[in-house]
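Dear Dr. V.,

Thank you for agreeing to look over these. As mentioned in my earlier message, I'm a first-year student in the group and I'm still getting used to reading structure tokens, so any feedback on how I've presented them would be very welcome. I ran two proteins. I've put each sequence directly above its structure. The first is here:
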Amino acid sequence: MRSGTSCFNGTLYKKAFLRFWPIWALYGAQWLLMLPLPFLTTGLQGGHPGVTTVTNRLAEMAQNNPLDMLMFGTMSAAVAGVVCAMAVFSYLYSSRSACTMHALPVRREALFTSHYLAGLSFLLLPHLAGLSFLLLPHLAVYALTVAVEAALGCLDLWPLTQWLLVQSGACLFFYSFAVFCAMFTGHLVALPLFYGILNFLAWTVTNLVEGVCYEFLFGFRRFPDQLWAAVYWLTPFIRLEQGVQTYYEGSKPYLDDPSAVAVYAVLGAVFALAALLVYRTRHIESAGDVVAVRIVRPVFRYGFAFCAGLTGGVWSAALLSQDSPAALTFWVVLWGVIGCFAAEMLLKKSFRVLRAWKGSLCLGAALLVLCLGVSLDGFGFESRVPDPEQVTQVQVWGLDGAPYDSASSNLTLTAPEDIALVTQIHTLAAGMEDQQYDGRASAEDGTFGYLNLSLTYQLAGGGTMTRYYDGLPIQEADLEAEGTLANLANQFTSDRNKVAEMYGFEEIEEGRLVEAYLVNVWNTQAESYEDVYIDGSAQALWDAMKQDFAEGTIGVRYLLEDSRARYENTCYTDLCFTIEQLHETAPGDRDASETYGTTFTITLTPNASHTLSLLRELGALDDTHVAPAYGVYMDGAEDRYDAYRNADGSIPEDLLYDETRGGGPAGETAPLG
């Protein structure tokens, strides 16, 4: 009989297709509501006086709507794929239906292909008008939308065609992947669970391992971007959503990475072929089993236990606020053992699994060794400092200090002497694990503070090395003590060339000055802070500020925000400039560009003579409007300023600033320094 040797059976195909027709009907209906229907409702406004506005709106919708819908389309394809797979292969999950289906005089290849294409026909219809794999719901929506756009005079085929191709590719992948998952289970409920877990497994496990490493390894925060890029490719839902994100050049929309959809469409075909190979060797008796393929059961058992250990361990430690490596290790091992027994229960469909204690014990021991190896730095992560000669560039974050204006916390260093200095800082930081932040405190011999540091090395071999250190203690007494962390870090904040790079003067000066204004100016009459705008003198103020910067009287950085020197030499008032800058939408073509506004802020100081003199000439600062000194201001002080109070609780006289020092008049209601 021909159907017994063929790889496709038309009767089985039609039965499965017609039996589950509501699935693709609902799937197609949602797209009818989202694409052609909005055009019709908008077009009905054509009889109103705003016909020009409606026409423009329709043209904009024709250009933007199809691509904007693809983010939703990814989620829709992921859900529709697994629903279709559950429907057409549901016969595998009941012993009676599985035996009945496989008793038919039809080869397994024909059984698989007929049901696979029946499910795909909810999205793809084979052998229609001599063409293969045409999208039935997609094609119907596409044709209707084209007809509606043409009737309304806003036809734009390319965005619609992109939607058709991208959505079809996403559906092909998700459906084929769901079918692949369906071959490994004999339980209907397990299919969507396996499908969802495998879609996000790489991303979830990487996050959990990253969290464990963060707790165990001093200087670690996250895995390299290259690893995360690979993880996103192993997480189809996230990577496809990234690929179909829309960005605009001018008013024209583009997809971020449509090639990603093409890659997953090819993978969909590969998964379909792999599913067929598994189906050919699948045992009929596995219907009802959580894992239908015996060779995969150990992978499921220990993989489930490993994930349970990481998930349960991280969440238990977080829930109980236990941040010690010993506590985290305990919870990871405990939940790993529990997960191993739980996996055995699922596989055997029984609670009698105590005989699996050997495997659970081995899994627990493996997790214990792994946790101890990481926490004891068996890989040498914490002590590794690169050879300066092997570093081509290092990016340093966290050396900007106070005050908090437009000075960036990022420095990119390439000079050998700078790189050598950074490695010295790195060596000191790596040995300060036991001195990390544990609450603000004061040192007996000066102000005490903390440094948050990030280092990213570009190595000569092309690799990168990144370290993060939070809460490194520094104190004012060490600023002049050679070889200390505070002294080495202060060499960057006191280098005027480095500070100029932090402020990014070169990039800012490529733009056009629009306006200048002061923020937090003290009004002595109203006794309140206000902003003061300055008309027509932005360039003169910029030049005066740059002159003060060159003389080192403005833009001075302080590693310790609570230092006495910072309070005495920094105003609470900021000088701000609005800058109009050019952004080239096409690199190298200044005609294809857009302008955008940005704000540059620099904190005033009592010593910035050129800037303060010009501000007084312009009337921005006068007897009523003053620039108060930073620190203790308004009524009283915060706790962190208590160290400066006299024994009776009063503010020392030298902290009451007057106008000549950039502050308001001395007195109880005046802004204090």
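The second protein is here, in the same arrangement:
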Amino acid sequence: MMFKALKKRKPAAALPTFEQEAPDNTVQEAPLITNYDELENVQLTTNADILTETRKMNGACPGFIAEDAQLYCIDRSDLNKHEALALNQLINLIREVHHKEPVIRETTRSVFESFINRNKEISLQQQTRESSNQVNELLSQAINNNATDIHLEIKNNKTTVYQRIYGRLSISQSFDKSQGIKIIAAVWNIYVNQPFSNGDVAKDGRFNFDYKGQKWLCRVSYGYSKVNDERSLAIRLRDMKHIPDIASLGYHETQLQTLKRVSANKGITLIIGAVNSGKSTTQTAIMKTRPALEKNLEISDQIEVELDNFVQIQLPIEGTEEIIRENKEKLRRISTRHDVDFIAINEIRDRETAVMASSMMLQGTTGIASIHGSGWVDAINRLVSRTDLGISPDILFSESFLSLIIVQSLIGVLCRRCKLEAHPDLFWQEYYRTGFGAYSNRDVRYHNADGCNACRYSGIEKLTLVAECIPITEANRRLLMDTSDPQALRDWMRDNGVLNIHQHACTKIFEGELDPLLTQRKIGNFNRGNLYDAWNH
């Protein structure tokens, strides 16, 4: 059986251990405070000497204290020089007044300033400055945590900030409603450079953020419901210089060979996946492999990554709708006038980009593009639907249009330190024991929802992709036409040694890399139609 005979990859070397027991005389530092509620019972000091001195600091002092000489301050790694000096002055003052060393507990800038300003009347200029600092903090913290997205939600008079790390959401901070609205206003007014009003219902924008010499693209989306007074802000983060090697993304050896072989063919490589499935990353990695001495052109609604071997042109977004449409039409003709060898379209998202892709491919240009969909059936149906993208089937299934279809999803890799040998739910343990047979007891491992210190208590240590790479030939092109029978194409893949996405996922499940239930929730059920005799249900 082709699937069972796949070459097994060598297991990755174990990570070095980081846990070390602290000496008995070491004082454990208090954790960073990220929740506004943790400060509810803290009172500003009433000590006259301390108040007098802190007033001299003109409000620059990044700390406040309770009467027990416990000091709450902004995370010291986030202090500027002026604030750090003020903090040292306050620490020395507390030593003198209380005759003992203050206990220092650090809090994020957003939580700290939300608390100390809760009853203050401060100027709009001061609010803007402070909110801008808090946006910087949220972005920097997310980048340091390898987060791909930031979600800020305001409901029930409270603001909660989430980060999506390795595909999973976790709470980053929480503070009061008013502070959250100020942060949202700062994002639009200062970073996106668009006017913001509390009554705005929905907005989309983008901005660049420089962090430690790296340029990050931040794509922003905002929504507001007046009925229940709830707001949501989402920020997608992308390192504009990070271009991964295609071999590092998680493709199987046979899939990498297919990608290399098809790269010499005419037609379009179409990458299909849901939101957060790594489509843009895969597309960038493939684009990176293009010869620099060929004419490579990218036309995109947003240039996300800077590529030295491409001329990158962003679609127009300014002017009237008529001017924008006219300029897009001019760009659509650019492939013939610029002697283009390879063209990239970031995403086929509407009828205009679909027409652009089809016209360029019919002119004999090789290219790459992505489209949202859970599988090739969804993508084909969207492309030919007259109410959606509206590409003629005669064009879509012509010899010069499609050369390769990639369907992919991103799955969290189990933490090698805390993954489980048995599923905590006996139902799923028995389900996969029966389904996978001998593999389930020997190699399959499961997600530890409690996690450990090494994986920040998430149970996940990174992401990897699972995929199917289908070369389109005369032998299988007709199978794409009948989306009512996807099994026919899967059977063709089996007979020709092409892994489908479920088979690829199982190579990683059988190595203890992926949890089968988390994987199934992403790519759909395992069954005999996609695993054949490797599945026993």
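From my reading of the second output: The first strand starts at residue 63 and ends at 65. The CA atoms of residues 149 and 236 lie 5 Å apart. Does that match how you would interpret it?

Kind regards,
E.
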